[in-house]
Amino acid sequence: MSLFYLSLHTNYDIKKTDMLTIKQITENTDAVLRGLEKKHFKNAQEVISQVIEANDKRRNSQNQLDKNLAEVNSLSRSVGQLMKEGKKEEAETARLQVNEIKEKNKELEAAMNEAAAELQNLLYTIPNIPNEGVPEGYGAEDNVVERMGGNHAELPADALPHWELAKKYDLIDFELGVKITGAGFPVYKGKGARLQRALINFFLDEARDAGYLEIEPPYVVNAASGYGTGQLPDKEGQMYHANEDDLYLIPTAEVPVTNIYRDVILEEKELPIKNCAYSACFRREAGSYGKDVRGLNRLHQFNKVEIVRIDKPEHSYESLNEMIAHVENLVQKLELPYRILRLCGGDMSFTSAITFDFEVFSAAQKRWLEVSSVSNFESYQANRLKCRYRSGEKKTELCHTLNGSALALPRIVAALLENNQTPEGIKIPKALIPYCGFDIID
C-alpha cells in the first residue's frame, strides 16, 4: 500500500509532524511559525513569544523553588545537629532562615502557578501545525481536487431543488421546525423520516462491517471534553451552552467518542482502536445566511455518523487511507457524483494536521455540497487529552487521533432527492432499498 490512498494523484510528500508542545515551540520555533503561517494564524509571532516568555517564568520559578527547597532541607537537618551540640543561638538563626525561605517559596509557588496557567491558556489558542503535504492557500478556492467519481445526473430544465421536492412529497417541513424551535431545525415526516433512519442504519452497518465498534455517546459534554478535542476555546461561540450546568451540546460525535480515551494509557496491541457513532449534532452557525443555507444546506441540528480512530503515529496515515476509502465506498454505493478535496492551510480546522473533504454534486442546485471531512490530527488532540499508549519497550507515547464523517445526512439527502427525481417520483438507490422498505418516493 502506498503511503497515501490518494498519493497516486498528487506530488505532495506526506511526512509526519511532531506534536505541538513546549519542547517543539522552544526547540523548533521557526518551523512552528512557518506552520502557523500556512494556517494563517494571526499574531503567531506575538503569541509564540508570549509562550516562550511564560515558559521561562515558569521554569525560572521552578528552578529557584527547587534550590530553596534543597536549602531548607539542609538547614532543617542542621538545626537538630546544632541543638545536640548545644549551639542554641546558631540553631535559632538557622530556624529563622528556614522560615524566611519558606515565605519566599510561597511567592515563588504563586508566580510559578500564575505562569503555568498563562502558558496553558496561550497553548489552547494555538492551532495544530499542518502536515507538509497541506497545500498553501487562504480558502476553499485554493483547495486541491484529488479525485472525482460517479456520474452526474441529467435533469430537465424544470428540475426542482430539494426544498421544493420535500414540500411536494411532504417529506420535510421547514416552517413547522421554525414554529417549534426556529430556523435550521427541520421536521422530517413520513418517508422523509424513514429515509433519515435508513441512511443512519446503512452507515452504521457499513462501519460495523469495516470493523468499527459502535458507540452510543451522550449528546452533551463538559468543558474538559471540549478542550480535549479542541472545540474549546476555538469554537465556543458556535456551540450551544447550557449555562447553569456548564455543559455543551455536541457539534459532532467526535467529541464524546474521542474523549473516551482522555487520560488513558492504552496497550500497543489495542491499536488501532476503531469506533463509530450516530448522533444528532448541534451547531449555532452564527452569521449564516443567503442562498447557501436554504433547505438542508446548513442546519443548526442534523444527524451524522462519525468514525473515530486512535492509532500509533507510524500507522496513522495508513488509517487515514482506510478511512478515505471507507467514505468513498459509501458515496459510491449511494450512486452520487463526488469529488475529494485536499484542503489548503487556510481552509483547515483548528485541530487538523491534514484534511480531505468529500463533496457530492447537487444536480438541481448545480453546486458541490460538502458531506464529509476526514482528518488526521496526529498527536495534537492526544496531547490535550493525554491519550497515550505503552510501547513494547514499556515507554508511553502520545497516540494519533483521526476522525471522519461517514456520513453527514442533510446534504446527502439533498443530493439524493435532487439527483434522483423523475416524472414518476424520486428513486431510491439500490443499496438503500432494504433499509427504506420502498424503492420510490411518489
Describe this protein's structure:
The chain has 442 residues and is α+β, with helices and mostly antiparallel strands. The chain has helices spanning 22-27, 29-38, 44-84, 88-124, 162-168, 174-180, 190-209, 223-229, 254-258, 316-333, 380-385, 409-419, 433-436, and strands spanning 144-149, 172-173, 187-188, 213-215, 220-222, 241-242, 247-249, 265-267, 273-282, 301-311, 338-342, 354-362, 367-376, 388-390, 396-398, 400-408, 421-422, 425-427, 440-441.
Which helices and strands, and how do they pair?
Blueprint: H1 22-27, H2 29-38, H3 44-84, H4 88-124, E1 144-149, H5 162-168, E2 172-173, H6 174-180, E3 187-188, H7 190-209, E4 213-215, E5 220-222, H8 223-229, E6 241-242, E7 247-249, H9 254-258, E8 265-267, E9 273-282, E10 301-311, H10 316-333, E11 338-342, E12 354-362, E13 367-376, H11 380-385, E14 388-390, E15 396-398, E16 400-408, H12 409-419, E17 421-422, E18 425-427, H13 433-436, E19 440-441
Parallel strand pairs: 4-9, 8-14
Antiparallel strand pairs: 1-11, 2-3, 5-7, 6-7, 9-10, 10-16, 11-12, 12-13, 13-16, 14-15, 17-18, 18-19
Number of strands: 19
Terminal CA distance reads 45 Å
Structural class: alpha+beta
Shape call: elongated
Percent helix among the residues? 40-55%
Number of helices: 13
How many whole angstroms does the radius of gyration measure?
27 Å
- What proportion of the residues form beta strands (DSSP E)? 15-25%
Round the mean pLDDT to the nearest integer and report it. 92
Describe the biggest sheet?
8 strands, mixed
Sequence of strands across the biggest β-sheet: 1-11-12-13-16-10-9-4
Catalogue the unreliable spans: 1-19
